[in-house]
Specification:
Blueprint lengths: L8 H15 L4 H13 L10 H22 L9 H19 L4 H8 L6 H4 L2 H15 L4 H4 L12 H4 L12 H13 L4 H7 L3 H9 L3 H12 L6 H11 L3 H13 L1 H7 L6 E3 L6 H8 L9 E3 L10 H4 L7 E3 L7 H10 L5 E3 L7 H4 L10 E3 L7 H10 L5 E3 L7
Parallel strand pairs: 1-2, 2-3, 3-4, 4-5, 5-6
Protein name: C-Maf-inducing protein
Length: 407
Amino acid sequence: MRRDFGKYPHVRRFVQDYIQALNSQNDGQNVVHKFVRDTHGNGINCPHLRVLPNLVAVCTSAIFTLLESQRNRQSLNIFGDQESNQHLRCYFSVLSVICEYDDWRPGLAQLLQPVPFPDFALADESFMTEILPIVKRIGTDPRCQVHQMVLGPREQKEGWLQFVSPNAVACCDKGEAWTAMIQVLLSCCYKRKKFLRMLLKSLGSCMLLALRDNSTAQEILCLMLEWQLVEGNDQCMQIVTTLQSTPGGKKKYQALCDRQLHLQELQQKCGPRKLTLPSRSTDADVMRLLSSGPFGNLEVLSLAFTRVTSACAEQLIHLQSLRYLNLWATQFGDSGLLQICEHLHNLQVLNLCETPVTDEGLGALVALKNLRKLNLNSTKLSLQMFEQLKEALPSLQEVDVRYTDAW
């Protein structure tokens, strides 16, 4: 273990086989953990400088090889078979034990900062479930030289903070680790405009978490408003509305308004004109947001790619100024469509692409006489219903009926 495994790959392979031999015994992972702890020694600091990088090299290279092997077998699940599952979890558990030691954690953080795993694994929830506790332990370490390693090694390179964010493909904890790490970064040396500008890429996730009364997300939104990092009054109003939807957010926003005159003026306006909800929003999030303040000016609402269903129609029907409604790729069905057609007669643009609506609900569209653009791509629209809609909607200018029976 005192040699540099970068120069001796055969020795690295030997240690991998040795770890798997330990893992195959009765009480396998505990035996492996004892091996790692014995390697560190009983002292506060490990006396052998090469032990840590060699152990990490053993684990990361083994994990990478196993992942590529699974991919070559075209497995849909990177934990696709029992043997691969056992081996992968063994190496993850070694990294977890390494992370327990204060003297090893800075070195581990530095070695993992470049994210030494393939992109397809980072998009797999089962993989992220295994690596997340290790990343969280690093990102919440109070030492600056440790927790800053969750950021990318250079400006254009993504780091662990991006891969565990709520809007990441394989987020597996609803953003809990992400907000915990950001809280540590903000409380240390990253309460700066440059860092907040980077978080603007995750603005939707911040608003969703703030809507669910996450204190850190609310703090981020308040800082963005205070430092005027958000462009446009509509976006600012959406943040304001989000903050006012929960007791914690309302308290933080009120304290901010006491210091910021321009926010007091913004608050006097009758809500935003445009509103876009983050992709993981649910019916409960829509209800919480739309019940939090005035929306008399709201003309454009996008719920595309969210998790909303027809249940949110109870809130949508109160938006009498609505002109544009985007429900693309949601579970908004016939019952919800019947409601909005009964109440929202000012709608001019409606996107129902990839929703489960059928002729039963689509027949109600005849009530929307102001409708100019309609997207029914990939719905269960029939040719007969399409002909009825064309005849009953004289203002209709654009209709997308691709991948339907009317196409």
